[in-house]
Amino acid sequence: MDEVLGVILLVGALVLAGTIVIVLIAFGFSRASIDSKYESAGGGLGGAFDAIWSPTAHKAGMERDRQTQRTAPAPAPGDPPDALGDGRIRIDI
């Protein structure tokens, strides 16, 4: 009986310690500014916690990644630098 109680207490202590570590990590990531979360390679770990506890920060990070990876269209060879129409300059983006 004492062995069973000892195992139950050990498992409970390990589960409690793991829960405390996860809560502290999540709290630390939620308190950091958005810019500091995504400036290093560790942003992926922070993104997982953001998706759960701070979905707006997660969506902002996804949008920032989308805009960073987007490239401007290159003009075709021989195209004029500006498209003129009706006396107005039109720049296609």
Terminal Cα separation, in Å?
75 Å
Number of helices: 4
Q: Which structural class fits the helix and strand makeup?
A: mainly alpha
User: How does the overall form come out from the CA principal axes?
Assistant: rod-shaped
What labels describe this entry?
93 residues, mainly alpha, two-stranded antiparallel sheet, 4 helices, 2 strands, 65% helix, 6% strand, rod-shaped
Q: Topology, please?
A:
Blueprint: H1 2-31, H2 34-37, H3 43-53, H4 55-69, E1 83-85, E2 88-90
Antiparallel strand pairs: 1-2
Helix pairs in contact: 3-4
Care to describe what's here?
By secondary structure, the protein is mostly helical. It has 4 helices and 2 strands. A two-stranded antiparallel sheet has the order 1-2. α3 packs across α4. The longest helix has 30 residues, at 2-31. It is rod-shaped and about 90 Å long.
Short description:
With 93 residues, the protein is mainly alpha-helical.
